[in-house]
Design a protein that fits this description.
- This protein has 534 residues and is α+β, with helices and mostly antiparallel strands.
- The strands form seven sheets. The protein has a five-stranded antiparallel β-sheet, with no helix packed on it. A five-stranded antiparallel β-sheet has the order 8-13-12-11-10, with no helix packed on it. Strands 5-6-7-9 form a four-stranded antiparallel β-sheet, with no helix packed on it.
- A hairpin with a 2-residue loop joins strand 24 and strand 25.
- Helix 6 packs across helix 7 and helix 9 packs antiparallel against helix 10.
- The chain starts with 16 loop residues before the first helix and ends in a 6-residue tail after the last helix.
Length: 534
Amino acid sequence: MHFHDLKHWQIFNTLEPKFMSNIHIAVVYDYSGNKALLVTNNNMVYEIGTNTNGSLGAGDTYDTFDPIPVEELCNKDIKTFSFGKDHVLALTKQGLVYSWGRRDHIRSHSSLSNRTFVTKNVKPSIMENVKPSIIIDTLPDEHVVSIGCGSCHSLALTNTGKVYVWAYANGTRITYPVLNDNIIVCCACGNEYSMVVTIKGEVYGWGENKVGQIGVGNCSDVNGPCKIIALNGVVIEKVVCGYMHTLALSNEGALYVWGGNSSGQLGHGSTLENNPVPFKLEVEEMGRVQDIAALHCSHISVAMGKENQVFIWGQCLGQNIIAPRCTPLRCLHDAFAYYAWPRVTYQPLVFNKKGLSLSNNLDEAFDDQVTSDFIIKVQGRHIHVHKAILKIRCQYFRTMFQDNWAENTKSDVSIDKFSYEVYRLFLKYLYTDKIDAVSDSELVELLELADMYLVSHLKEHCIQMLMKKITLKNIACFYTISFKYHTKELEKCCFKFALNHMTAVIQNSDFLELDKKILNGFLIEAARAGAFKT
């Protein structure tokens, strides 16, 4: 997107062009559409708009047309925002979650389970929090990668596939995990209900269900996560929620809809019937569906069909559009700017940072769900990548994505041989030419991966790192590796280290258990170097 696209949102029309050109992330929120948060290229966060309940986050309740810094969020590497009726969340790249706005919402048992996992007490007298404060900082062995809000409740998805749900009740934040035995890859919030998708493509929902928006076949509220049986046999990749209706997209580009239909938001040609059971919505003109969008505070449905055409239906400009209608738009965001009410962003607008080098752009593109066109699944976890980049950087992927290979027609592939952490390091290296901090065992696994995929520059990088990490504890392992992967440079470095620490090496049980051929060769070379002269 280009910063000029901000002009589609009226709230930004008072901003100076120079300031607008420096915007990296923008979100329009509140049920009036009169509030906005902005993240600039220099990592500053600003508020503009009306400030009901202090939900702009700057620490006061004053309205403003001029950008005001939100000091608590500046220089915090904000990744995304989400908003409810009167509360807002911000997620950092490090996985910290900030919250502000009203805290006096009381959820019924249908929206929140009565199972308490974590409680964090706040003073009951504090009904508004006008400054962002951290509500999720560190979780054991995981971090938050995605957030979502309903009218009065919130979700957080972690990198391990867990979802945490919370809301405030009588001044207390109640948080609990859902579906602990499933890896969740997608979650969404309706007005007072929630939906999630597991790695197997199964859909679960819970919460308010008065018009069948959860999809369980009836209109009774659902107290805990319930599997949507009607979608058995269908692999769902994404689910989105409107106020009281739900859309789901399958891995084959099929669109399923269910729930409320008072404005025609199910798209089946009338406003007469709600539908508590998912049904496939087929529109010849739309063809294979590429993406879908909806929002918990509106009754509009949006989809991107073949040739990137954007279709809308439901409540659009105050009218009830009862079947998908093609628009001249080419961006899902624009559908919400032009046709929806309230005119808010269904997810943050993200713009390329001005002046970034190609390497920095590639760094930001890695594992970016918005721009990726392929998913690699490792140990049940997703890594979002770009086919073109992988083909340019790696012969293995160049072969995989040939026209006559099955993988080229798929949207994902599963990898079982390597760990998630190392495979992610490998893919990130293809984007950045950098290797993050890594343990000895991970570095060895990364070397194996580089050797298998014929990425010679990564293999050399691993070897150079191993040479700097040789110790008495790992020399036996590294020396064996030098022969396994035919790395003469590492072999010589290990040999030199062993000569300089001969007594300790010979007494090392791991070294004495080396392959006999390798050990005999070492002893012969050590003797030639005079290691055993008396």
